[in-house]
Automatic annotation (TrEMBL):
Signal peptide: none annotated. This is Transglutaminase-like domain-containing protein. The chain crosses the membrane at residues 25-45, 51-69, 76-94, 129-150, 157-176, 182-199, 211-233, 604-623. Pfam families: TgpA_N, Transglut_core. Residues 465-534 form the Transglutaminase-like domain. The keyword tRNA-binding does not apply. It comes from the Bacteria. Gene3D superfamilies: 3.10.620.30. Residues 388-407, 555-599 are annotated as: Disordered. Residues 580-592 have a biased composition (Pro residues). Keywords: Membrane, Transmembrane, Transmembrane helix. Residues 558-579 have a biased composition (Low complexity).
Length: 756
């Protein structure tokens, strides 16, 4: 008797069998990934990316423990995950950890200090805040706690839809704290993570559940596409669409938000916090923490990654300037950061951990890979004291990084205003004095205010110079440094503190003294301080050379007229000056906490790559699920090919569960192998016998199964095979990489029919 050829199964019309046991490996991984994708929304309120790396570490530990402890009761799993998260927090933030990660007696005290520091920063800071140690601790702990909660709800309790409530908190908090809309790609990631959590749920085997899961996937994909298209389609203004610039700032009247947001937060504190007590200074002097060299139009000044530095023991300066050499002692009262504030031109620093700090001579920054709080330190420094004539006559080669003269992206109107202000200045020093007088002189139209006037133009710096004319040190220092560069004078912005107030034998520096000013470079004298901020509270330190230059100015000198409301618009392709090639960046093994990406925050490529990786990992499992649904639908529909579809699915499920049964034997011989491989009980054996009978009747009696004749037996056999064997990490691997799919690809050129 000839053997009939099997017919290919029809498209799916039924759901997978019921009571399929859940494979928690996949669900646990999906829960962790959903937490991380939702956490990307924090980019709107925290600078840099170090916080995400710490969050990913603690989430990975929580997920791993959830998989390893899955055979225990749900409460025991949660306790184990919380203990694991505690060990991670101790290893990252506990300075007195036993063996590097075990919480010692002082660990919880350190945690309390971090929480206090984070609370103070939240109270005074303006988003996006600098990731201080306290803020990093709080964010990392939040990631860990959220991962435990989501795992308990979605995996242990089997209610992934309810996990959307804690995940929503990770989105709602930055949405409430940030003045700007969340980046579109961060919201896209959050939506995709929730959709993945729903699609990856296990144990849903009731009839129709596959359709529900498919609908969830469609909704998630639709949400992602809607966000992408919405961001691209709405191009007028920022209201009504997610900003694509992340947290890096915008043109709403602010010249730069990064890293000045922390500075502004300190200035607006209701109660100032003391940071330093210094002794040994002969006169009030500014205390510099870091310098900013990279200006980006409508985004502001950014801190470049420090270059590999020299030890703080010195010598720190290759060509020290002339001036008064001083020994300064700094007592740290409450300062913890990546930067070590220093006075003047430092020659050497002692009293700190030499292995953790380095000094970048180009930027004048002392830095460390992770924020630290040193008890105190001693600095030997030179306080330059050139005269106005010395700076006017400064001559020689300009041995300074070309980046400090870069005017790329500067609006031509800014260059024109600077040229008008300095048109009577004969030397670079006189240009600097003209700009200082432009902002602070008796005829200045500018005023100091922590509230900046919103601009309506296309360039924030032009708006400040022509319309708003009100701001605090950020705006004034930023504007003067850019204007000096347009006139060929190397300039940068310095961020730190004013001289503070006199105490009992010391000077006290507090958060209220946070400040920004300008440093211009002169041959033979190096970086020289100018302060263009019109402070009226006595905190400004006016250098002697500025006083001399102002006194030498002719009486009755008027400020040049500059454009008011009507400002000439720039030509479409006009530039202020030819861009100066930037130096080749130098990679160093430490984070740059104050410099965000060029687009503000995490690059868009990162989430797109993450989504691509998820798609590649889930691809085989999705393909296997589709094939399973087609076979089950064909078997339930009855008719020619129904028996073959049911038999193929029995063999595929057996292979996916780790057995090595072959379809080269007779149907009955293969069935006996399946029973032995999975230790099927009597109920499942009876169902398998019924499938064998119907398959043989179709193949050799030309009697196709009737509709739904295979549904009950097939569901029972698949449920029994799926429930066999031990649960563990191998089960999850088999789900992501089904063995039957590979076998089917190898045999795709052959269609075999079971023999008697």
């Amino acid at each position: 008797m000839s053997t009939p050829t099997a017919v290919r199964p029809a498209p799916p019309a039924a759901a997978p069998p019921a009571d399929r046991p859940r494979i928690r490996w996949v669900a646990a991984a999906a829960a962790g990934l959903a937490v991380l994708l939702a956490g990307t929304c924090l980019v709107a309120v925290v600078q840099g990316g170090t916080w995400f790396a710490d969050g990913a570490l603690i989430v990975a530990v929580v997920v791993g423990l959830g998989i390893a402890l899955q055979r225990l009761p749900a409460a025991a799993v949660a306790v184990g995950q919380l203990l694991g998260a505690l060990l991670v927090l101790t290893g990252l933030f506990g300075d007195d950890a036993v063996a590097g990660f075990l919480p010692g007696p002082a660990a919880f005290g350190a945690f309390a200090e971090h929480v206090t520091e984070a609370a103070a920063q939240i109270d005074s800071g303006v988003a996006p805040v600098v990731p201080t140690a306290g803020m990093l601790f709080l964010i990392t702990a939040a990631f860990g706690l959220l991962a435990v909660i989501v795992h308990a709800v979605s995996v242990s309790a089997g209610a992934p839809a309810a996990a959307g409530v804690p995940l929503l908190c990770m989105v709602a908090v930055p949405a409430a704290l940030s003045d700007a809309l969340l980046p579109w790609w961060a919201v896209t990631c959050a939506v995709a993570g929730y959709g993945l959590l729903l699609v990856a749920r296990d144990g849903a085997g009731r009839r129709g559940s596959a359709l529900v899961t498919g609908g969830i996937a469609v909704v998630a994909v639709a949400g992602v596409l809607g966000l992408l298209l919405g961001s691209a389609a709405t191009v007028v203004g920022t209201a009504g669409r997610f900003v694509s610039g992340g947290a890096g700032g915008g043109s709403g009247g602010a010249i730069g938000l990064n890293p000045f947001t922390s500075l502004r937060g300190q200035l607006t504190q209701s109660e100032p916090v003391e940071l330093f007590r210094t002794t040994g200074l002969p006169r009030p002097t500014y205390l510099r923490a870091l310098t900013l060299s990279d200006y980006r139009a409508n985004s502001g000044w950014q801190a470049a990654t420090p270059r590999p530095g020299v030890p703080l023991a010195g010598p720190l300066t290759e060509d020290p300037a002339e001036g008064e050499r001083v020994q300064v002692a700094v007592q740290n009262v409450g300062f913890r950061d990546y930067w070590l504030p220093l006075y003047g031109q430092p020659e050497s620093v002692t009293g700190v951990d030499a292995d953790r700090w380095a000094y970048d001579r180009s930027s004048g920054i002392a830095y460390t890979p992770r924020p630290r709080e040193e008890e105190d330190w001693q600095e030997t420094a030179v306080l330059p004291a050139p005269s106005a004539d010395d700076l006017r006559s400064a001559a020689g080669p300009t041995r300074v990084d070309p980046a400090y003269r870069d005017t790329s992206g500067v609006d031509p109107r800014v260059a024109q205003i600077a040229a008008d202000v300095t048109r009577d200045a004969a030397t670079p020093f006189d240009k600097a004095i003209a700009l200082v007088e432009y902002f602070t002189g008796p005829q200045s139209q500018f005023r100091y205010s922590l509230e900046t006037a919103p601009g309506s133009g296309d360039d924030a710096l032009v708006d400040f110079l022509t319309v708003g004319r009100a701001g605090y040190c950020e705006q004034f220092a930023s504007a003067m440094a850019v204007m000096l560069r347009t006139q060929g004078v190397p300039a940068r912005v310095a961020v730190g503190f004013t001289a503070g107030t006199e105490g009992d034998g010391y000077r006290s520096v507090s958060t209220r003294d946070a400040h920004a000013w300008v440093e211009a470079w002169f041959p033979g004298h190096g970086w020289t301080t100018f302060d263009p901020t019109p402070l009226t509270d006595g905190r400004t330190v006016v250098p002697p050379y500025v006083l001399e230059a102002v006194a030498d100015a002719p009486p009755g000198a008027e400020q040049p007229a500059v454009p008011q409301e009507e400002v000439p618009q720039p030509e479409p392709q006009a530039e202020a000056a030819q861009p100066t090639p930037e130096p080749t960046p130098v990679d160093i093994p430490q984070p740059d906490p104050t410099a965000a990406d060029q687009d503000g925050g995490v690059p868009v490529l990162v989430p797109l790559v993450a989504l691509l990786v998820v798609a590649l990992l889930a691809g085989p499992a999705v393909a296997r699920r589709v094939l399973r649904k087609r076979r089950i639908a064909a078997a339930a529909a009855g008719g020619p090919g129904a028996g073959r579809a049911a038999w193929d699915e029995v063999l595929a499920t057996s292979r996916d569960r780790g057995s090595a049964v072959s379809d080269g034997d007779t149907v009955r011989g293969t069935a006996r192998a399946v029973v032995a491989a999975h230790e099927l009980d009597s109920t499942a054996q009876d169902a398998l016998r019924e499938i064998v009978r119907l398959v043989e009747a179709e193949c050799y009696g030309d009697e196709p199964p009737a509709e739904d004749a295979l549904t009950g037996p097939l569901q029972a056999v698949l449920a029994a095979i799926g429930g066999s064997g031990r649960r563990g990490w191998k089960s999850g691997v088999r789900t992501l990489a089904p063995r039957s799919l590979l076998t089917g690809l190898r045999a795709s050129a052959q269609e075999r029919t079971p023999a008697a």
